[in-house]
Design brief:
alpha/beta; Rossmann fold; Arc Repressor Mutant, subunit A; six-stranded mixed β-sheet; five-stranded parallel β-sheet; 18 helices; 47% helix; globular
């Protein structure tokens, strides 16, 4: 039987030309601003482990690898982009032929830089085999579940996972050419400029290409790619309309509590498990995050309503629906992303009195509230009342209220409560 394999569809010269074109195109791209995660990636150069960089499409993973590549030097690595349609049909067993072509084009090198590796079935087999031969791998992928599952079975103990989010607030300001003020010596003008920058960040988010080319509908295209390519096609979904409507609802309600049971009824899907699966697909594709309540009972954490946060406020504003700007919820979403960049151990807390605290960090035993401002006494009383009810329950060691300006700290039952400007706190993170 004559199989239409990848290598049978291309001549050796065509494969070599493709590899050279990919490399030259990669090397000549715009380096962009230096990402915070570059230092983390560079720290892995001393260890033999594969480095796996995962995150949303167009969040800058390839640019991060390009920045690393320029630190390594042009003659030190091979580059492969499996998003290229010329790799359609490529299988893990074709790796030897591919390596032979790389040797003929570039000579012997010991580092692989690979984009979107999840497009290749069985990719972990050839990565493991080449690692055993002393090769170093830097890899990107856009599907968290796929990467983690395959890494767990094939690369156990031999990989370093790094998550890349859209721009942080500090990176957003750097991208726009805005200098960060000295937080210890802020003038009135500095405060005003910083608040204006935060409002822009809330509106436009941190997806690099969308900021670079605001006249193009890049966020809408990105969103459609995630829904149809990363979710519907990958998971072979027939009910595309249902997941599209669910995604639209969730993106329109950031930082809100959702019940899987109520969503099942609202969208008339077969079961709660279907809702769980759909939301899981969105999480795996880096479209959104779910946040569990903090409770000593794991079962209650699992069955209690979840809070939903989007990967980017610019994406939320473009895709979601709202009668008016929901600044408070968007601020909470930004704070969540800043916390999530540093740790996965983030929860919300529901106090015994039924008051909600936006975030609880169990490792630091810190409670965090987010609000637009504390000018109204009703707002201040609400935030403080929730903290007071929660502090004794979780035995918190500290609490933080993020608002529009700094205020003097105070105590609740001997526990220090700091009041910080959200904009300044985001810059300091």
């Amino acid at each position: 039987m004559n199989e239409n394999t990848w290598k049978s569809r291309w001549t050796k010269d065509q494969i070599k030309s493709m590899l050279l074109e990919q490399f030259d195109s990669f090397w000549s791209r715009d380096l962009g601003i230096v990402r915070t995660q570059l230092a983390e990636v560079e720290q892995t150069r001393r260890v033999p482990h594969a480095v796996i960089i995962s995150g949303l499409r167009r969040a800058g993973k390839s640019t991060l690898l390009l920045q690393l590549a320029h630190r390594l030097g042009r003659e030190q690595f091979y580059y492969l982009n499996f998003e290229d349609d010329r790799f359609l049909g490529f299988r893990a067993e074709d790796a030897n032929d591919l390596y032979q072509a790389l040797l003929e084009v570039f000579g012997e090198r010991k580092i692989f830089i690979i984009d979107e590796i999840q497009n290749i079935d069985g990719w972990e087999h050839f990565v493991r085999r080449f690692m055993d031969m002393g090769f170093k791998f830097y890899i990107t992928g856009s599907n968290a579940s796929l990467l983690s599952r395959e890494l767990g079975t094939r690369l156990t103990g031999r990989y370093v996972p790094i998550e890349l989010f859209p721009f942080s607030f500090k990176e957003f300001m750097l991208f726009r050419g805005e200098s960060s003020p000295d937080l210890d010596r802020m003038t009135t003008v500095d405060h005003a400029r910083l608040q204006n920058s935060l409002q822009s960040y809330l509106q436009f988010g941190g997806i690099p290409d969308a900021l670079k080319y605001p006249e193009l509908p890049l966020i809408r295209t990105l969103y459609d790619d995630v829904l149809y390519r990363d979710i519907a096609t990958r998971y072979r979904l027939e009910a595309v309309t249902a997941i599209k409507e669910l995604a639209f609802f969730l993106m329109s309600n950031p930082a809100n509590l959702v019940s899987f049971n109520k969503l099942k009824d609202q969208f008339r899907v077969g079961s709660v498990n279907t809702i769980k699966n759909y939301i899981g697909y969105m999480e795996n594709s880096w479209l959104l995050f779910t946040l569990n309540v903090y409770d000593y009972s794991v079962k209650r954490q699992q069955i209690a309503p979840k809070k939903i946060y989007g990967i980017d406020t610019g994406l939320i504003n473009t895709i979601g629906f709202g009668f008016s700007p929901n600044t408070g919820k968007l601020l909470e979403n930004l704070v969540f992303l800043a916390l999530r960049r540093k740790t996965k151990e983030v929860h919300y807390f529901s106090s015994p009195g039924g008051y909600e605290v936006d975030f609880y960090l169990p490792e630091q035993r810190q409670l965090i509230q987010v609000t637009g401002n504390l000018a109204l006494s009703t707002t201040r009383d609400r935030e403080v009342r929730a903290l007071k009810d929660a502090i004794g329950t979780v035995k918190a060691q500290g609490a933080l209220i993020l608002s529009d300006s700094n205020e003097d700290s105070f105590e609740i039952n001997g526990v220090p409560v700091h009041v910080r400007s959200t904009a300044e706190w985001l810059l300091a993170e």
